[in-house]
Amino acid sequence: MAALETPQAFDPWDPAFLADPYPAYEELRARGRVHYFEPTKQWLVPHHADVSALLRDRRLGRTYQHRFTHEDFGRTAPSPEHEPFHVLNDHGMLDLEPPDHTRIRRLVSKAFTPRTVEQLKPYVDQLAGELVGRLVAAGGGDLLTDVAEPLPVSVIAEMLGIPESDRAPLRPWSADICGMYEMNPSQETAAKAVRASEEFTAYLLGLIEARRKEPGEDLISGLIAAYDDGERLTEQEMISTCVLLLNAGHEATVNATVNGWWALFRNPGQLAALRADHSLVPTAVEELMRYDTPLQLFERWVLDDIEIDGTTIPRGSEIAMLFGSANHDPAVFTAPEELDLSRPDNPHISFSAGIHYCIGAPLARLELTASLRALLSQAPTLTLAAEPVRKPAFVIRGLEGLRVEL
User: Fold this and answer.
1) Does a structural domain hold residue 2?
2) pLDDT of residue 118
3) What is the total count of domains within the chain?
4) Which pLDDT score is estimated for 1?
């Protein structure tokens, strides 16, 4: 049966919890398969088997508006002053369900192909090498701002065809928009997200118009040209897709990089093994994604009543699937609290699953592999220069910075 009261250890606003949520997850898993969390009115699901199954369960959805009005679903419509954010967010495929999701993902997949990603490999490897080279030449620096951020932001901007001179606002816009994905975001957070949504939308409108007149080899030109069974992307769908690809295309990579290196510094034996054997890089990337998961929680609406462990969760409820907990479930992972860079079987769900499985997962793996190899090769004596500060956010887990030296 479900625990009716969430254990006090689960407190996503407590700095101690944010520093290390994994003991609280262990308690949640021991207490039951589903827990109601009153502060956010959500049902928390901590076990890997349940999270994996629910990600594929069509009785749940990222939206409910394809079937219900807000009133029918027992929900309050978003505030009109937040409309720019919701228009931008709600037209991206991550927050849509079939048939719109199916149509948009099919069209985007025509432009965002495995071949497109593979063709980027020389650029990604070269850029990672240059960024790490500058860090080494300086004798160290902030791994976050010097390597982790500029690599994926530059790559996705290059893919989209955003000129280098226009790239400075991309990361701030993304950070402000992603603030809305935290639990119970503040009015200040919402205001920042609205402003970023308006500015990013205005910029992309101009860029799309320019690509309509002069198509290039970039992804925006590809999205404009994408055509299937008489269907095309609307202008808003193109804008929302570009923003989604930028946000999702670098947030996870940035945070996986710094979370991963912070984990390596705390596990010197594993770091030494990796430095001695670079063939461990592919399994290391998967293990670092699992060990300190960059996206800790993913939400779904309950479209039809479901039952978990004897507890009925009614239509209109919201489920919060705890990716970080699922990735530490001992029912799936041997010694889950241990960092094991050679872990042979690693079915982590850091990239989600089902129809919303991350379309950019191959690109994220390419970027993480490139930066890890470059740092291992060019900075074999890299060490931690200062204890990092954890960002005061739960859902998107990262650090304020990671100071390193050689």
Assistant:
1) no
2) 86
3) 1
4) 44
**Phi, then psi, of 67 in degrees rounded to 5:** -125, -30
Specify the pLDDT at position 227. Answer: 67
Task: List CB contacts of 186: < 8 A, sequence separation 6 or more.
Answer: none
Instruction: Give me the residue label for tokens 């928390």.
Output: 44
Tokens found for residue 173: 């816009």
Question: Which parts of the chain have pLDDT scores under 70?
Answer: 1-7, 227-230
Q: Supply 287's token pair.
A: 């293990």
In a domain, 341, yes or no: yes
Question: Taken in order 253, 294, 45, 178, is the CA torsion positive or negative?
Answer: negative
State the residue range of the domain holding 293. 15-405
- pLDDT the model gives residue 250: 79
Strand pairing report for 383-384 and 140-142: unpaired
User: Are 283 and 340 contacting, i.e. CB atoms less than 8 angstroms apart?
Assistant: no
Whether residue 374 lies inside any domain: the answer is: yes
| Beta strand segments in 197-354, E | 297-302, 306-308, 311-313, 318-322
pLDDT score recorded for residue 249: 73
- pLDDT value at position 229? 61
Tokens of 122: 């020389």
Which CATH number belongs to the domain containing residue 178 in this structure? 1.10.630.10
Residues 6+ apart with CB under 8 A from 153: 167, 170, 171, 246, 250
pLDDT value of residue 252: 84
pLDDT of residue 68: 92
DSSP string, 280-324: GHHHHHHHHHHHT-SB-EEEEEESS-EEETTEEE-TT-EEEEEHH
Distance CA 198, CA 248 (A): 19
Looking at residue 8, what is its pLDDT?
Answer: 72
> Is residue 10 included in any domain, yes or no?
no
Among the listed residues 384, 388, 389, 387, the one whose alpha carbon sits nearest the alpha carbon of residue 406: 384
List the one residue out of 191, 178, 244, 241 whose CA is nearest residue 79. Answer: 191
Residue 167 sits at the vertex; the CA angle it makes with 178 and 360, to the nearest 5 degrees, is 55
